[in-house]
Amino acid sequence: MDEGGEPLRLREKAYASFTRHLLARDVRPGQFVSQRELVALTGLPLGAIRELVPRLEAEGLLSTIPQRGIQIAHIDLNLIRDAFQFRLFLEKEAIALFTVSASDAVVAKLRREHEDMLARGLAEELAPEIVEQAQAIDWNLHDTIIDAVGNEIIAKAYRVNSIKMRLINQERFRIDGRVVPVMREHLTILAAIESREPQKAVDAIAEHINNARALALKV
């Protein structure tokens, strides 16, 4: 067994490198690539890439097309619908638990981050690096809610879907120009969490996710 050994570390490095380049748009949805190109992209050995491909196929991040090669997952309506439905199922249950278990300090910190960014968005035209900070605040709220469940299986499944969500975000409805409405929707969610009423929080996050879904499908 190589658990904990160099082969395992190489596989994880290959996965982390590929997903990082994917989200950085160094490879694009729908693009065809070869294993050799993935070696050049990640800087890792061909053996690690060969072991990586089945995992990425299983996660729906790429597919092998006979006589054509490896195709990066492309953003279509089915992917959008499936990714949002999966996200909605997980986040509704997670936020119900988070609403009754999250500490006041954690919720207060999340509120401060959102209020500060909202104030900036209302006061000035945001530079690209500030927009990136806003995007990080957006994702962090959702990740925090999921991580608080304390279930590694759920967390891993959510992270894979989150990669797809971020690809959809890049292709369909980037936060650029939408910082103020996103921060306001998140503050509505945080107010529901502060009420310590799970159903109120579930309704708030469902409305937020459905709004994003409608934007993604409309573009």
Topology:
Elements: H1 6-23, E1 32-33, H2 35-42, H3 46-58, E2 62-65, E3 69-72, H4 77-101, H5 104-123, H6 128-147, H7 152-172, H8 179-194, H9 198-218
Keywords: DNA-binding, Transcription, Transcription regulation
GO molecular function, one term: DNA binding
InterPro entries: GntR_C (IPR011711), TF_FadR/GntR_C (IPR008920), Tscrpt_reg_HTH_GntR (IPR000524), WH-like_DNA-bd_sf (IPR036388), WH_DNA-bd_sf (IPR036390)
Task: Jot down its keywords.
219 residues, mainly alpha, Arc Repressor Mutant, subunit A, Four Helix Bundle (Hemerythrin (Met), subunit A), three-stranded antiparallel β-sheet, 74% helix, 5% strand
Oligomer: single chain
Structural class: mainly alpha
What string, H for helix and E for strand, traces the elements in order?
HEHHEEHHHHHH
Radius of gyration (Å): 19 Å
Helix content: over 70%
What is the molecular shape? globular
How many helix segments?
A: 9
Average per-residue pLDDT, rounded, comes to: 91
Number of strands: 3
CATH architecture of the largest domain: Up-down Bundle
Query: Into how many domains do the coordinates divide?
Result: 2
Give the N-terminus to C-terminus distance in angstroms. 48 Å
CATH superfamily of the largest domain: GntR ligand-binding domain-like
Strand order of the largest sheet: 1-3-2
Low-confidence stretches: none
CATH topology (fold) name of the largest domain: Four Helix Bundle (Hemerythrin (Met), subunit A)
Beta strand %: under 5%
Major beta sheet summary:
3 strands, antiparallel
CATH class of the largest domain: Mainly Alpha
Keywords: DNA-binding, Transcription, Transcription regulation
Protein name: GntR family transcriptional regulator
InterPro entries: GntR_C (IPR011711), TF_FadR/GntR_C (IPR008920), Tscrpt_reg_HTH_GntR (IPR000524), WH-like_DNA-bd_sf (IPR036388), WH_DNA-bd_sf (IPR036390)
Domain HTH gntR-type: 8-75
